[in-house]
Amino acid sequence: MSSVKSILSRLVDILSGRYHSMLDGKIRKIQAAYCALDRDIEIFKKKTKLSCIEGCGHCCACSTVEASEAEMFPLADALIRQGDAEAWYAKAQAAGSSGRCVFYEPQPGKEHYGRCACYAMRPFICRFFGFSASVDKRGVMRFVACKALKERDTDEIEKIQDDVVLGAVHAPSMSEYLMTAASLDPSIGVDMMPINQAFRKAVEHVSLHRRCSHSRFGR
Ligand code: SF4
Ligand code: SF4
C-alpha cells in the first residue's frame, strides 16, 4: 500500500513539474509573440509614418477592451513574482467585468489622456490599437484605424486603407497573432472577455499552478 502511495505521489510530482514547465513555456511563447508583433508594428509605422497622438489614451479609456486569459499570463506572472498581483487582482475585482481597464491611469481632469501601468506586459489587443488589420466578411484584409487617428490624419488613413487592401503595405494581422494565444491552449486562448476579467482569471490560473509546484517541490 505504501509503495502505491509513493508511486502516486511521484506521479503527482512529475505532472506538477511538467505543468510548471509547460506554463513557463507558454509564457515565453506569448512574450516572443509580443516581440514579433512589436517589430511588425514598428515596420508598419515607419512605412506609413503613422504614430499615436502624444499622451492619448482614448483606446484605454473605454470599457470595452477585451482579451483572452492566456494572453494575460505574462502580466499575471510578472505581478505574482513582484508580489503585486493581489493588489491588482483586488482592483480588477472591484472594477467588475465590464469596467475600464484597471491598469489605465488617466491624467487628472483629462479622462482620455493617460498612461498604461503595465505597458511592457500589455496584451495583444493593446498593441494592435490603431496599427493592425483584420479580414472583412468578403475575405479582404482591411486596416483598422482608431477614431482619434482617423480624425487627425483623415487623408493619410484613407491612403493607408487603400494600400493595405491592394497589398502595397503590410499591416500586422490581428487573427494571426491571436492564433498564437489560442494555439497554446484552446480552452483558455480562444474566449475573449473584458480585460479585467481576463486578468483575474490569468492570476488565478498562474498562481494556482505556481502554488502547486512550490508545495510539491518545497521551492
Ligand atoms: S491608437 Fe489611437 S486612440 Fe489609441 S493611443 Fe493611439 S492615437 Fe490614441
Ligand atoms: S493594459 Fe494598458 S494598454 Fe491595455 S487597456 Fe489597459 S491600460 Fe490600456
Bound molecules: iron/sulfur cluster
Strand order of the largest sheet: 1-6
Instruction: Compute the number of structural domains.
Output: 1
Helix content: 55-70%
Summarize the helix and strand pattern as letters: HHEHHEEHEEHHHHEH
Indicate the radius of gyration in whole angstroms.
Answer: 20 Å
| Low-pLDDT regions | none
Q: Tell me, what's the shape?
A: globular
Distance between the termini: 28 Å
Q: Given the helix and strand composition, which structural class is it? A: mainly alpha
Mean pLDDT: 87
User: Count the helices. How many?
Assistant: 10
Which band does the percent of strand residues land in? 5-15%
What this model shows, in words?
The chain is mainly alpha-helical. The chain has one domain (about 1-215). The protein has 10 helices and 6 strands. It has helices at about 1-50, 60, 75-80, 85-95, 125-130, 145-150, 155-165, 175-185, 185-190, 195-215; strands spanning about 65-70, 105, 110-115, 130-135, 140-145, 190-195. A two-stranded antiparallel ribbon has the order 1-6. It has a two-stranded antiparallel ribbon with strand order 2-3. A two-stranded antiparallel ribbon has the order 4-5. A hairpin with a 2-residue loop joins strand 2 and strand 3. Helix 1 (about 1-50) runs antiparallel to helix 8, helix 3 (about 75-80) crosses helix 10 (about 195-215) and helix 4 (about 85-95) packs antiparallel against helix 10 (about 195-215). The longest helix is centred in the first third of the chain and has 47 residues, at about 1-50. The two termini are about 30 Å apart. The protein binds iron/sulfur cluster (2 copies). One iron/sulfur cluster binds near residues 56, 129, 146 and 149.
